[in-house]
Amino acid sequence: MVKARKYVVKKHFQGLPKRDDYELVEYELPPLKDGEILVKAEWVSVDPYLRAYNLRNPVPYDQFGFQVGLVQESKNPNYPAGRRVVSHKGWCDYCIINESQVNIFNVYLLPDMQGLPNELGVGAIGMPGATAYFGLLELCQPKEGETVVVSGAAGAVGTLVGQIAKIKGCRVIGFAGSDDKVAFLEKELGFDKAINYKTADINEALKEAAPKGVDCYFDNVGGQISSIIISQMNEFGRVAVCGSISTYNEDPKQMPKATILQPSLNLKQITVEGFLVHRWSAKEKWPQAFADLIKWIKSGQIKVKSHVTEGFENIFDAFVGMLAGENTGKAVVKI
To answer: pLDDT digits over 197-243, tens only?
Structure first.
């Protein structure tokens, strides 16, 4: 028997999570059955979308969220002991995975990282990377010379979106929540302009940064900031709606109000499409994205930054810190 630990959400809640909303449970894993693998977590991801799901129903976080883990024991020839796998088993230090019972996100072998850190398997060479890659390139379809705006630009997805847009020859404007993040986007990642949405007049700052209007908008936050950005879009602009961070800690029955979008959408014939990254199969489509992302990282065209918290017992702090905007780049926990 293997002793394991996992985080359990005890109740539905609003606002920033509190420690008594969660419980750390110790338990024993049963012996493996045919087709199963025993995995020891090495890197666990904390992401904003986990909070969004908990707004609707309490989510068992040992069954939700990405992790990179090492196969300790295997009764599945596709995942031999000693190999690393990426799964959606989330906030647990050990888990048993049966490939035939995996929902939504497939378990898959960690790609050949070509010398890059394994932590990127839950970052740029993982779900956030696939999200940025497909959301931008397939939905926004940016063209050379166009202006791309990214909200939540200093996060795991936003940093990649902006850099991919630069690779495609676009002018890139990012919104972030601190002057340090603004400096990081401009000086380290090469954004043409970054704006602190907490201190700037968003409408005027965007007009100054994009005097010819916005062609593509990658929306991570929703709310009034998105209404302003969309109001400044050009004819036939494209919007990829990835998330709505601005509302994740709000009561679903009392969502904040924002300026209506229909006049801009109608008069400028703007296309708006929401998406979930599992639309593109992790086993069939994500490798295409990973190959390009690895190439761009190794060539220096994309820079990646991880915000690392160490220790399984500190997952909760890492999660709350990420929701409060303390991270720049991908928030991960080293187990």
So the answer is: 999 999 999 999 999 999 999 999 999 999 999 999 999 999 999 99
Q: How are beta strands 330-334 and 36-45 bridged, if at all?
A: antiparallel
Cα–Cα distances (Å) from 79 to 253, 282, 285, in that order, read 44, 16, 20
Write the CB contacts of 66 (distance below 8 Å, at least 6 apart in sequence).
Answer: 44, 45, 47, 86, 87, 88, 90, 105, 122, 126, 127
What's the pTM value of the predicted model, to 2 decimals? 0.92
Residue 93: both structure tokens together? 């230090």
**Helix, strand and coil in the chain, % to nearest 5:** 35, 25, 40
Q: Is 8 helix (H, G, I), strand (E, B) or coil?
A: strand
Cβ contact 177:199 at 8 Å: no
Q: pLDDT-derived band of residue 63, with 50, 70 and 90 as boundaries?
A: low
Element containing residue 321 per DSSP (H, E): helix 315-323
Q: Among positive and negative, which fits the CA dihedral 88, 69, 102, 2?
A: negative
Alpha-helical segments (H) within 2-81:
48-56
What does DSSP say about strands 233-241 and 271-274: parallel, antiparallel, or unpaired? parallel
Paired tokens of 119 = 């932590």
Long-range contacts of residues 175-179, Cβ cutoff 8 Å, at least 24 apart: 175/149, 175/150, 175/151, 175/202, 175/221, 175/225, 176/152, 177/325, 178/325
pLDDT tens across 243-286, in order? 988 777 666 677 778 999 999 999 999 999 999 999 998 889 99
In degrees and rounded to multiples of 5, residue 276 shows phi and psi of: -120, 140
Distance (Å, rounded) from C-alpha 217 to C-alpha 202?
A: 15
**Residue 225 near residue 175, CB atoms below 8 Å:** yes
Q: Which of 76-88 are b and which e, b meaning 16 or more Cβ less than 10 Å from the residue's Cβ?
A: beebeeeebbbbb
CA–CA distances in Å: residue 102 to residues 63, 97, 122: 10, 8, 17
Residues pairing with 293 in the sheet: none
Task: Tell me the C-alpha distance between 26 and 6, whole Å.
Answer: 7
